[in-house]
Write a structure and sequence with these properties.
By secondary structure, the protein is α+β, with helices and mostly antiparallel strands. The protein folds into two domains: about 30 residues, no CATH class; about 150 residues, Rossmann fold (3-Layer(aba) Sandwich). Helices cover about 40% and strands about 15% of the residues. The chain contains ten helices and five strands; from the N terminus they run ααβββααβαβααααα. The strands form two sheets. Strands 1-2-5 form a three-stranded mixed beta sheet. A two-stranded antiparallel sheet has the order 3-4. α5 packs parallel to α10. InterPro entries: NAD(P)-bd_dom_sf, NmrA-like.
Length: about 180
């Protein structure tokens, strides 16, 4: 590896050239493209979950229950994957795109697991444009409306999450994470 120091760069959508220039010549790049982080930065999550008749309603814009989402315990499972990539070195990983997820699960599975581990019924309510404008007026923007293309787009290299499991064989699935985080055990 080169002797270049680690440089942390943050960027926003539309700043691709700035990011590309900052990463030029880097041996290893960890790139997080989490669109939702910025949208949820100032959101009170009480807005997203409402308790009605002893049930928790999870209101999510545009996502139906059959849409699959990549899941990972960011705090526990991301570091071991990154460490293994660094250990194996740039000769093996340069130019590769590595999706960091333990599994792709339908939103319905997430709701069912939350019900199972908490003992409280969770229900999904998919918000349409009109609902979203009422619930999150500041978040009803063009970027959110264009999100339907999918989380990883059409890049087949990013759809193979088995790579994460090879790099970190003890990676938790969502149900294990939910038991540890929300469980009543």
């Amino acid at each position: 590896m080169s002797q270049n120091p680690l440089i942390v760069v943050t960027g926003a959508t539309g700043a691709q050239e700035d990011i590309k220039n900052a990463l030029n010549g880097a041996d290893i790049v960890w790139l997080n493209t989490n669109f939702w982080d910025q949208l949820l930065k100032d959101v009170d999550f009480g807005e997203e979950e409402r308790v009605k008749n002893g049930e928790i309603e999870v209101a999510i814009y545009a996502l139906e229950e059959n849409i699959k989402l990549p899941m990972i315990d960011v705090d526990a499972d991301t570091d071991p994957i990154i460490a293994k990539i660094i250990e194996e070195g740039p000769a093996k990983w340069n130019g590769k795109k590595i999706p960091v997820a333990s599994e792709d699960v339908p939103l319905k599975h997430i709701i069912d697991v939350l019900t199972k581990v908490t003992g409280i019924t969770h229900k999904l309510r998919t918000l349409n444009d009109e609902d979203n404008a009422k619930v999150n007026p500041a978040k009803n923007n063009e970027q959110v409306n264009q999100m339907e293309f999918g989380l990883f787009g059409k890049d087949e290299e990013l759809n193979d999450i088995s790579i994460s499991k090879k790099l970190h064989p003890n990676i938790k699935n969502f149900e294990q994470y939910a038991h540890e985080t929300y469980g009543n055990d």
